[in-house]
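tool_call predict_complex ligand=DCS
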Amino acid sequence: SKEPDVAKIRSRFPVLDQEVNGKPLAYFDNAASTQKPVEVISALKEYYEHHHSNIHRGAHTLAARATDLFERTRSSVRAFINARDVEEVIFTKGTTDSINLVAATFGKAFIQQGDEVIISTMEHHSNIVPWQMLCEATNAVLKIIPVTENGELDLQAYEELLSEKTRLVAVVHASNALGTINPIKKMIQLAHQHGARFLVDGAQSLAHLEVDVQELDCDFLAFSAHKLYGPTGVGVLYGKRELLEAMPPYQGGGEMIREVTFAKTTYNDLPYKFEAGTPNIADVVAFDAALSFIQSIGKKWIQRLESQLLAHAMERCSEIKGFVPVGTAKDKVSVMSFTIRNMHPFDVGMMLDASGIAVRTGHHCTQPLMDRLGLEGTVRASFAVYNTVEEIDRLYESLVRIAKRKN
Ligand SMILES: Cc1ncc(COP(=O)(O)O)c(CN[C@@H]2CONC2=O)c1O
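tool_result ok
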């Protein structure tokens, strides 16, 4: 397919067409959440203007139509990650919710005293705290894979941590704080050799990389729609059918039951066993338009455009006196974390905002990683398919002015 026209892509994102502090907005906070194309916005409007009803079981036309739209997104997600069965796609509120679901149900069913769970130093808090809570509740043991100075996982140490006590490994595919892409296929194979299951935190990778759950052979995959040009409040948990069948329900309520009596309640089949209550119907429906947007460009072009942006940003900013890159792995998604010597990240972020440039500063919900790197926090610029070289040149020029004040 031919190279996409970035100007045309940008025209699909009305939010980008505004000034901040008198300057055109340069939105470089995509790792936190991406902006939404008009297709997603109009899908929401269209749904509420013409199709809304509560879903499943309804005996009327609108209920059937809303159900079809909801289940159509489930099929699109299945294809997007190449899951074997559509019932292996569970809708949640987001990556955090998906990981908590696994910790609460797989954890309860399969993790006992003395068992071990392995995570890594670079995990986001939502892939640390649920496992700490589970280990506290079960007296299981949490083991941590160390990272190297340039922000890559120490695979030797990972192999040594694996043992017959390991029940689950939960590791991020691409780091939100560093951009590092971890070699999860190899890590999954090693975990399986020890009879352990593997959860992939895909929050930062699905927008950039092809993720094929059957090729990876991961047991669980968690991600959020809002990082994939889709609405907030919608996430996905992919799980192998045989595991999801063996896990107890996460929340009790409507939808997740087959029959309720005071004597005994039986549960619904997959995926509904894990989808209690009225779901976020409209945003799930609109998520389908976000997946179509991604497919309309194709991951190949997305990766190419974003790596060009990252390379340009690194090349220019590395010339700046006082610019210190954080996370220099060779395999990265389009995240550039850095500090400016003698300056607090927050001050740098405020000064960039004064020039209309949006970045995120702080610990990025990866405080153990910041401790390991000896940092208070970083400034993080994260690029998406609608960013441009001109915007990055503005980032460079602003940083030159900012860094000069203290270097
Ligand atoms: C690697 C990773 N895992 C889990 C999450 C949690 O996702 P939800 O918030 O959608 O449940 C995030 C969110 N990324 C954060 C959010 O803001 N800035 C970030 O980098 C993340 O980057």
